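Bug #77: duplicate submission created two jobs. Keeping one. Sequence:
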Amino acid sequence: MPLRISPVSDADWSVIVPFSFQAFAHEPYWQLLFPGGDNPANHLRSIERMTCSYKADPEEQYLKVYDDETGDIISCGSWCIYEEDPFARDGKGRGIDKWIETPWVEGKQKEHVEWVLNEIRDNRKDMKKLTRGHCCQFLLRD
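Kept job's structure:
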């Protein structure tokens, strides 16, 4: 079973999203980012969102690990690679420093989710090591 690594393609999200819901079913942060539960309708919404999202940010790279013999995806990860301080580069309130909005969340939960995501963003700014070029990694596995 030789394993390979390659960039995620549009078609891969239909595999990655369902196993992500299974892998993170009891993770509160996942439920904030992907409300609606583990069901086919929500998978479709999430696949559409992830397909658009990963294309929108050239600094965020998604890679998959797959079995070269079967083609089965084993794992997925994303890295945000910044060659310089993105907060200084983009300027206050722009780029990585802009208010994070969540058009996929509705009602009272929207305010809470946006508060959590923006607190994380603000905490990143306070970490001195993140005010220069850096790499931020997010991993996911089945």
